[in-house]
Design goal:
Keywords: Periplasm, Signal. InterPro entries: SBP. GO terms for molecular function: thiamine binding; thiamine pyrophosphate binding. Pfam families: SBP_bac_8 (PF13416). By secondary structure, the protein is α/β, with parallel strands linked by helices. The chain has 2 domains: 163 residues, Periplasmic binding protein-like II (D-Maltodextrin-Binding Protein, domain 2, 3-Layer(aba) Sandwich); 152 residues, D-Maltodextrin-Binding Protein, domain 2, CATH 3.40.190.10. It has 13 helices and 10 strands. Strands 1, 2, 3, 4, 5, 6, 7, 8, 9 and 10 form a 10-stranded mixed β-sheet that branches. The radius of gyration is 22 Å and the shape is globular.
Length: 349
């Protein structure tokens, strides 16, 4: 018996030694630019710390930002001398970055875990894939709603005028809300957003802020507002943290799938370590850990997630997601942003 086991034991030892040698070959510093706040806290614990344990010769600097548009602005300003190696931001922004040559190609040879991603994770062949899945929701203060709301129409209820935190564009919370409003009205947003823009302009006078600080979740929990727009993952986290004071509602009219991508920056000063980090972030263990911590749906098909955590992600609600081509939406970003500024936000002043 011992004789038969020896080859397997030797093979396992060789694999372990090879993995350790490969980890030792990866060294130096990288800078990751990604979201601030609770995302940073949870990502550091679930992904970065285990990565550093696996790659002890690497140092990860986390540069936090509260918006994808700000991250893109930084990449543009640093194009001649990049200070960032890896960036996590929304899919619409990443497609702009790809087009402008700010992001570098990735292959399965560089990032082996690309081979195990679900099909929806491949945003643009050869470039940074999805690293999280999420969806847009309405958040509400449960003390103000003895009966939970079920429809997007609640944002137009005058009973809550002056008590709403609705995030506008350039955040994709704004473009997503426009798509969801079009669906509610029966409008084909790919042809026109005239009806949804007019409907959102009707909502505007009741909005307390279009730029929630520090965020809509905090304002709704502390009672400054009673309604807001947000993302399911953060909403579920804060619903738990607030002991149910925050409620999360997926409107019966449907929602939009939100994708964050992980990308290698063109001109990275340490591409070897940057690619190792991207590969780890896409691994089954990292994907499962972040889903358990923050309720983003995993992108790796081999991630093993508890039923309890998975039930709180968009994975169980895909039948309620509205069709939205983020590549196409990226081409409408400037036009829709102007509609928000000139027709919607201005109507609330």
């Amino acid at each position: 018996m011992i004789t038969r086991l020896l080859p397997a034991i030797i093979f396992a030892a060789l694999l372990s030694t090879t993995a350790q040698a490969q980890s030792a070959d990866v060294s130096g510093e990288i800078t990751l630019t990604a979201y601030s706040g609770i995302f940073q806290d949870k990502y550091n614990d679930a992904v970065i710390k285990p990565f550093l344990a696996k790659y002890p010769n690497v140092k990860v600097n986390y540069f936090a930002s509260n918006a994808s548009s700000a991250m893109l602005g930084n990449l543009r300003s640093q194009a001649g001398d990049p200070q960032t190696d890896v960036v996590i931001f929304d899919v619409s922004t990443s497609l702009i970055g790809d087009k402008e040559g700010l992001l570098a190609p990735l292959t399965a040879a560089d990032v082996p875990n690309l081979a195990d991603l679900v099909p929806q994770a491949i945003v643009k062949e050869g470039y940074g894939p999805a690293v999280t899945f999420d969806n847009l929701v309405v958040i509400y203060n449960t003390e103000a709603f003895p009966t939970p709301p079920t429809s997007l129409e609640v944002l137009w209820d005058k009973a809550y005028a002056g008590k709403m935190a609705v995030t506008s564009m350039p955040s994709i919370l704004g473009s997503g809300l426009m798509v969801m409003t079009s669906a509610m009205l029966g409008e084909d947003y790919t042809k026109s957003v005239k009806q949804s823009a007019a409907k959102l302009a009707e909502m505007a006078p009741g909005v307390q802020t279009f730029d929630p600080k520090p965020d809509a979740y905090t304002l709704v929990i502390n009672g400054t507002d009673v309604l807001g727009t947000g993302w399911n993952a953060r909403g579920q986290y804060y619903a738990d943290e607030s002991k149910g004071k925050l409620g999360v509602m997926l409107p019966k009219e449907g929602t939009i799938l939100q994708i964050n991508t992980i990308n290698l920056v063109q001109g990275s000063k340490n591409p070897v370590a940057a690619k190792a980090f991207i590969d780890y972030a896409l691994s089954p263990e990292a994907q499962a850990a972040f889903t358990e911590a923050m309720f983003y749906a995993p992108v790796n098909s081999k991630a093993k997630v508890s039923d309890k955590a998975m039930a709180l992600t968009v994975a169980g609600q895909l039948d309620k997601t509205l069709p939205l081509d983020w590549g196409w939406a990226a081409t409408k970003s400037d036009e829709w942003n102007q509609i928000w500024k000139r027709q919607i936000i201005s109507a609330g002043k």
